[in-house]
Amino acid sequence: MTAKRDFKKTDRAWYTAPRGRWDRLVLPPLNYLAIDGQGDPNGPDYGRALAALYPMAYGGKALCKALGRDFVVPPLQALWSAEDPAAFVAGDRAAWQWTAMIRMPEELTAEMVETARQNVLAKLARKPGAATDAPTVDRVRQMTLDEGDCLQRLHIGPYTVEAPTLADLHDRVMPALGLTFNGPHHEIYLGDPRRAAPERLRTILRQPVRPLDHPGSTTG
After folding, report:
1. 19, 90, 106, 143: most buried, per Cβ within 10 A?
2. Could you tell me if residue 160 is inside a domain?
């Protein structure tokens, strides 16, 4: 039996980070299934989005498994942005724009994504009162993210107390290194808030960066 590909093992450096220190690393372009939205992540739209994203990811896994390319569905990730980055430090959740996403292997084609979508929609039609709906499933898209040069560290504790760590990154760490933003704030959720106490949650905080005197771009 062919072993399942596990991104957390094959690409360990991208799913681990030190606590109390920002490390620098360079990432290649990576493939995701993603869904976009805006507002409080505790709100109903974010919940519907995740309830659409996960079945799509597992549908993609099933199709890859049929080709002999099975993989472990990796942790949920999200990109966060706002017109003013200070919205994160201030906790102004209404201004937060988000992209929830799950990494997928290169073998997952656009045609396979659409097959997975139709399978999810068919199951949804037979399930009254589901946690999501067809329009939300239709929002799930395939995305390539090319972040390149990044800073990242491990945060342990509730998501709601990340602000001082991010303020330190924005106001001290990045200026000291001569760096500025080169893409949205990125989080990788290693803990499950449904099963772990808030003070034990583990989250990788990642920020794509570029030198202050060089223009940069991201792809999504």
Report:
1. 143
2. yes
Tokens of 196: 């772990």
- Please state the domain count of the chain: 1
CA 145, 148, 151 angle in degrees (round to 5)? 110
Q: Where do we find the tokens 């003013």?
A: 84
Of 40, 39, 20, 25, give the one whose Cα is nearest residue 164: 20
- Does any domain span residue 15? yes
- CATH number (domain holding residue 81): 3.20.80.10
Q: Give pTM, 2 decimals.
A: 0.91
Residue recorded with tokens 């589901």: 130
Structure confidence by residue, pLDDT tens digits, 42-68: 889 999 999 999 999 999 999 999 999
Domain span at residue 66 reads: 7-211
Residue 56 is assigned to a structural domain of this protein: yes
